[in-house]
Amino acid sequence: MAPVVVVGAGPTGLTAAALLARHGVDCLVLERRTRPHPQPRAVHLDDEAYAILASVGVDLGAISRPGQGLRLLDAGMRVLAEFRRDAAAGRHGYPEANMFDQPDLERILRRKVTVLDGAEVTEIIQHGDHVRVNGERADYVLGCDGANSFVRNAIGARMRDLGFAQRWLVVDIDTDADLGQWEGVHQVCDTRRAATYMRVGKSRYRWEFRLRDGETAADYQDLSRLRPLIAPWARVEDLELRRVAEYTFRAQIADKWRHDRVFLLGDAAHLTPPFIGQGLGAGLRDAANLAWKLAAVRDGELPASVLDTYQAERLPHVRTMIRLAKLLGAAMTEGGEFGNLLRRVVMPRLHLVPGLKNRVLSSETPALRRSELVRRPRFRRSLAGSLCPGLMPDRMTVVTAETHPELADWLRHGHARAALIRPDGVVLEATPSGPPR
Ligand SMILES: Cc1cc2nc3c(=O)[nH]c(=O)nc-3n(C[C@H](O)[C@H](O)[C@H](O)COP(=O)(O)OP(=O)(O)OC[C@H]3O[C@@H](n4cnc5c(N)ncnc54)[C@H](O)[C@@H]3O)c2cc1C
């Protein structure tokens, strides 16, 4: 078997395998399904995730449309607030919001790696210097096997619940008809029936409706039964139903992400409600964080102790993003009639809050915390832990205004003379700019 075995050919596992190959590590992806997952799930990725995919030669732009922003509506479809995206590209050089279809992405990623389909992993045994996966030897195992992860159980990790569970109906539609709708995300902020609508592709659309107690997806299996839900946006006669499914959106994080030579990534390690479209993005960030470290440890360039920085860096980041998703979900949909009233009063005035539009639309996620590979001073602001715009080098790279003139403004704003950039684009350390000479 290959030195690294990836369990699960979802987007996290495929990306991890492609990144490992980029860093010169052979790996094999084992997938229990006999053919790729056909159903749409994720529909949004930000520009940080776009950059990770670009680093393995995947052009997300070829299969996506730039997102136009967010519109908040009340139950009567009156616009409460609107946040439009103007810029074509963000600081990494890609659109900050990208609408796409998950099976399209998985199809492209699969061409980059070796996948063994129909190979369910049922046994993982750790030995001192190797792991046995279904009896075969590997140096490391990456558990990218989704929410019901076998690997998670095998290493004795448990999901910790962050107190969120909502049942939603997810409706995917194909149509060539012009629905004549504004092309950003529509969020209906209504306690009785929260809903989300968005255009995903040229002829692909997604609706999500919060299910009421006693309702199930079985109540909405055809377009005639979906009519009252979809009517505010479209005539069902123009639509072709691709699928209807019920999902319980949860917020959970595994209590440990590593046991010796076995790691958890993606949905196997964390679950988030999709309100800010960050579940899959988090899996891609896990893959980018771990792949170069594993390669450097295998090559003897870094000590094995740096592998502990994977959970230390990624878990707090994931927790922050999950809290943000929960907060946004609650702000848009909770609070009963009083919540609806409050939203009607507050949301139309949001444009008066200075800087709020930029904050709502910003795709920049928080900097990583201090670790052996993020040298952040305690009492001074620093670029360390943040992402360098538009750069994911093959090797650790020092950037200065002289070597990278396009980064001169970024360094100046970060009060840095130079920055050491890791292969995942994270700033390991920044040298403060001295007093003016
Ligand atoms: C309705 C909905 C909307 C969403 N919207 C967004 C969004 O807009 N943006 C976003 O970023 N995320 C979104 N997500 C989340 C996103 O879809 C998931 O986070 C993502 O699919 C997780 O990828 P993964 O590779 O970690 O896991 P998965 O996609 O679950 O893949 C795991 C793979 O492992 C395989 N496997 C399992 N067990 C074994 C085994 N024992 N042996 C071998 N193989 C195994 C499975 O068959 C599967 O192929 C959404 C999710 C849902 C449900």
From TrEMBL:
One of its GO terms (molecular function) is FAD binding. The keyword Oxidoreductase applies. Keywords: Oxidoreductase. The keyword Transferase does not apply. Residues 2-323 form the FAD-binding domain. Its EC number is 1.14.13.127. GO terms for biological process: 3-(3-hydroxy)phenylpropionate catabolic process. It is an enzyme of class 1 (oxidoreductase). SUPFAM superfamilies: FAD/NAD(P)-binding domain (SSF51905). Gene3D superfamilies: 3.30.70.2450, FAD/NAD(P)-binding domain. This is 3-(3-hydroxy-phenyl)propionate hydroxylase.
